[in-house]
UniProtKB/TrEMBL annotation:
Source species taxonomy: Bacteria, Pseudomonadati, Pseudomonadota, Gammaproteobacteria, Pseudomonadales
Superkingdom assignment: Bacteria
Region: Disordered, residue numbers: 169-188
Organism of derivation: Pseudomonas chlororaphis
InterPro entries: DUF2165_transmembrane
Matching Pfam families: DUF2165 (PF09933)
The protein's name in its UniProt record: Membrane protein
Keyword Coiled coil listed: no
Length: 188
């Protein structure tokens, strides 16, 4: 794989995740009611009230639903910071690709590792917070999204940490001289 293909593939991953998270932030800010609703349901554990058995021993953990707005904007602020780190790493790969520099590539990779680690921490925070409030009992689809993002983050983190492989050296071959090749026998 050439240096430029190597840098471009990492750029594509980082820019895609940065764009995805930037759109998520935009959605949180332009349609806050949707996430306020889901966060409020999670924090207040209201979805567990209709259950006689599920989550009964967890309900003491519930917070008032009015904390949903503050929580949403705190999460959006963290998402902005993480998306900026992802963009910063992506632009590092642009620079490495453009300059063809191994030193710049190593710097971009370091940025990417930090950005993806923060991306993972964001979604692990969602999983742990959701687990605390028992969201897995009634909001499995949301938990699945968070788990999927953790898996994507882990795969991306492993991907960007790869080393570019050097091109194998091509050995020139000397033309064959008569008598230098072993005789081949044909089978009957």
């Amino acid at each position: 794989m050439s240096f430029h293909v190597f840098a471009f593939s990492r750029l594509a991953v980082m820019a895609s995740l940065a764009l995805w998270l930037s759109i998520a932030v935009l959605n949180n800010l332009t349609d806050p009611e949707t996430n306020r609703f889901h966060i409020g349901n999670t924090l207040s554990m209201v979805l567990l009230e209709e259950e006689e058995l599920l989550g009964v021993a967890l309900r003491w953990r519930a917070w008032p639903a009015h904390w949903a707005e503050a929580t949403l904007y705190a999460v959006a602020g963290i998402q902005v910071a993480v998306s900026m780190l992802l963009w910063y790493a992506a632009f590092g790969y642009v620079k490495a690709w453009r300059l063809g520099s191994r030193r710049v590539l190593d710097s971009a990779r370091n940025r990417a590792v930090v950005a993806l680690t923060c991306f993972l921490l964001l979604w692990f925070g969602f999983i742990c917070g959701g687990l605390w409030f028992g969201y897995w009992l009634k909001q499995g689809a949301i938990q699945s999204v968070h788990m999927t993002l953790i898996l994507i983050g882990l795969v991306a983190l492993l991907f960007v940490q790869g080393e570019p492989q050097p091109w194998p050296a091509v050995q020139p071959t000397a033309p064959a001289t008569p008598g230098s090749q072993p005789l081949e026998r044909s089978l009957p």
